[in-house]
Amino acid sequence: MMTNLFSVFDPSSSIFNFSINWISTFLGIIMIPMIYWLIPSRYNILWNNILLTLHKEFKTLLGPTGKNGSTLIFISLFTMILFNNFMGLFPYIFTSTSHLTLTLSLSLPLWISFMIYGWLNHTQHMFAHLVPQGTPAILMPFMVCIETISNVIRPGTLAVRLTANMIAGHLLLTLLGNTGPSLTSLILSILLFSQILLLLLESAVAIIQSYVFAVLSTLYSSEV
């Protein structure tokens, strides 16, 4: 039963042993026409306001050391994850963000680049960050170990958090959908209403998780 449940996340379409389901990650480039960006509309204005708000927030998180274009990578990260989360809510569309292959490919290079930049350019600051201010001398070796471990697992927690939240909602939707044929019409109508509510909840989770991923990446960047 568990194999059948998790099989909904498996790539099923392939050409020459290459899964074409992963192409759905880049559907945004294909589906959004150029005219959307050229002709102002209320959706375009709304999206631009969202991006401007994110730019201001990320700029605040990065602090005075952040360059003018430094928020672009985190806004692009938010946009990509948000689009893929939403695309996974549609039937027969592959959810790429429910796989560690994609989420780790996003978080691990970012974390490695932050670490390389920090240790090469701000070595003293990186060493000082391992021991929080006010730590007793007897606890300093333990704090160094704890801070090092918490730093090393950051890309993993970023990736697993996003993947687990996407998988949990889709599994629940799959469970509710599989029980539908064996129910009476009254219970089926209640189940349909609950699925609509769950779909709204999943839409909120898609927004929140993409925002959390981008904000935590920004905070990790601000530390170095």
Automatic annotation (TrEMBL):
Entry keyword annotation includes Mitochondrion: yes
Membrane topology type: Multi-pass membrane protein
Keywords: ATP synthesis, CF(0), Hydrogen ion transport, Ion transport, Membrane, Mitochondrion, Mitochondrion inner membrane, Transmembrane, Transmembrane helix, Transport
Gene it is expressed from: ATP6
Cellular-component GO terms for this entry: mitochondrial inner membrane; proton-transporting ATP synthase complex
UniProt-listed InterPro entries: ATP_synth_F0_asu (IPR000568), ATP_synth_F0_asu_AS (IPR023011), ATP_synth_F0_asu_bact/mt (IPR045083), F0_ATP_A_sf (IPR035908)
GO molecular function: proton-transporting ATP synthase activity, rotational mechanism
Name the record gives this protein: ATP synthase subunit a
